[in-house]
Amino acid sequence: MSIKQPLVTMKGRKDGLVLVMDDTCAYEALLHELKEKLSVNQQLYKEGPVTSVKVQVGNRYISESQRSELMAIIRSFDHLKVDDIWSNVLTREEFETEKSKEKIVSVARIIRSGQVLSVEGDLLLIGDVNPGGVVSATGNIFVLGALRGIASAGTPGNEQNSVIAASIMKPTQLKIGRIISRTAEEPANEMKNDHVLECAYVDLSVGKIVIDRLQAVLKKSHLSLLLKMP
Amino acid sequence: MGEAIVITSGKGGVGKTTTSANIGTVLALQGKKVCLVDTDIGLRNLDVVMGLENRIIYDLVDVTCGRCKLSQALVKDKRFDCLNLLPAAQTTDKNSVAPDEMKKIVDELKADFDYVIIDCPAGIERGFQNAVAGADHAIVVTTPEISSVRDADRVIGLLEQEKKITPPRLVINRIRQHMIKNGGMLDIDEIMNILAIDLLGIVLDDDDVISFSNKGEPIALDPSSKAAQAYRNIGRRILGETVPLMVIEEKSGFFHRFKSLLGMR
């Protein structure tokens, strides 16, 4: 029989340790070996600053409690912190929720006063949102038309990932995650002819919603929308 | 088989009843058999505006309760034989009629008349549902005020959910040209931008409309008035004619473009 492969392989990288775990053995055996490996090699990381650890569990599904168990074991050693636990496997449920966050729902109609349109994922609305109408999406909102009503994008705590864009940006209220803004109390100048596509996003440095030309927003690299570009 | 048209607005006081009375009158002027139906139970006005209050014997609620036949409740207009009014009851409220009862009555009227014009009460509750129940088409009345446009938008949204009603058309009422000129009032382009439905007609604000109403005469009968002209145009458009919009001012604008579109300038 060939040499037995270790269940846990430790690799040193510039940015910390990587623990590669066998995905065919029993979970208990894995825990056992992990503890052993970490205590045996303590001298490797005991000196010096805190080392970050990335765990790769391969094709093994790690439940939430197992995940915290792994983290607790690693943390119990001094000078180690867990950066990430990476698994190739998702439950179907997790996948579906992730997928619904990714999809773009396109709707072609006018959202009139008193009507509410809310979707999971991104919303592409072809038409207007009239005053008194509400659109909401867990992702981004793109309006090909005039946004004169209320738009609510993103989810609480995830403010920096969502934007609201509209061909004509005249909203009564904008909401991205937990942050709300309303337009300045200026007389409505509906007949402005020099339309540019405007985009609202959360500027984390001020913690407020900012409206800018889309071209200017494109330079903000932190926005997830722009990271998806090929 | 005739058509039933509901005249609605959401907001009160924008001129639904006046518009109903005048559209009914101009259609009758064109020789059509018309029945006006007042669904504003408890706050009826259409009979007063038409000057027919003293001729009412039975009303809408009497019909639904079976106290009389539908034909007995119809009031014949004093000017046109082909124009009739089904008055609302004044002594009860909107909950005394259900939408399907209303639909039955309108369907029955459609068999006898070319046009059934349904005057809708303000609001979007039971009275609105009653008025809309039997309608095939809808006309939304608005004025160039932000509150009235907002309510019209809401009502258009509700009408669009009614599958059997054709897309609503818009009448902009009480236009004051000097106020539009100095920017104190929304102009027609702005309203059309927001509401985005077909424009059936525009009616200028005219003091005579009020004095005629008080006399119990529809303004449409006075051909010298600009409002009457507007209602006649609306009537012709309902009958399917293509009539250009009235010019409210000589300046370039919506009307100029509209007219040049029709090759009139």
Automatic annotation (TrEMBL), chain A:
Q: Which NCBIfam families match?
A: minC
Does Cell cycle appear among the keywords? yes
Q: Does the entry feature the keyword Cell division, yes or no? A: yes
What's in the keyword line of the UniProt record? Cell cycle, Cell division, Septation
What SUPFAM superfamilies has UniProt attached to this entry? Cell-division inhibitor MinC, C-terminal domain
Its family remark reads: Belongs to the MinC family.
Please describe what this protein does. Answer: Cell division inhibitor that blocks the formation of polar Z ring septums. Rapidly oscillates between the poles of the cell to destabilize FtsZ filaments that have formed before they mature into polar Z rings. Prevents FtsZ polymerization.
- Span of domain Septum formation inhibitor MinC C-terminal: 107-211
Q: Which residues form the Septum site-determining protein MinC N-terminal domain?
A: 8-85
Which InterPro entries has this protein been placed in? Answer: CAP/MinC_C, MinC, MinC_C_sf, MinC_N_1, Septum_form_inhib_MinC_C
Q: What's the name of the protein?
A: Probable septum site-determining protein MinC
GO BP terms: namely: cell morphogenesis; division septum assembly; regulation of cell septum assembly
Query: What quaternary structure, including any partners, is listed in this protein's UniProt entry?
Result: Interacts with MinD and FtsZ.
From TrEMBL, chain B:
The cellular component terms of Gene Ontology attached to this UniProt record, alphabetical and capped at eight, are: cytoplasmic side of plasma membrane; cytosol
Q: Is Transmembrane found in the keyword set?
A: no
Q: What GO MF annotations does this protein's record show?
A: ATP binding; ATP hydrolysis activity
Question: In this record, what's one Pfam family?
Answer: AAA_31
Q: Which GO terms fall under biological process for this protein?
A: division septum assembly; negative regulation of cell division
Residues bound to ATP are 11-18
CDD domains for the chain: MinD
- Which stretches make up the AAA domain? 3-162
Q: Is Iron set as a keyword in this record? A: no
For this UniProt record, the keywords arranged alphabetically read as follows: ATP-binding, Cell cycle, Cell division, Nucleotide-binding, Septation
Q: Do you know which PANTHER family this protein is assigned to?
A: SEPTUM SITE-DETERMINING PROTEIN MIND HOMOLOG, CHLOROPLASTIC, SEPTUM SITE-DETERMINING PROTEIN MIND HOMOLOG, CHLOROPLASTIC-RELATED
Family that this chain belongs to: Belongs to the ParA family. MinD subfamily.
Protein task:
ATPase required for the correct placement of the division site. Cell division inhibitors MinC and MinD act in concert to form an inhibitor capable of blocking formation of the polar Z ring septums. Rapidly oscillates between the poles of the cell to destabilize FtsZ filaments that have formed before they mature into polar Z rings.
Name assigned to this protein:
Septum site-determining protein MinD
User: Native species of this protein?
Assistant: Sporolactobacillus putidus
State which gene encodes it.
Answer: minD
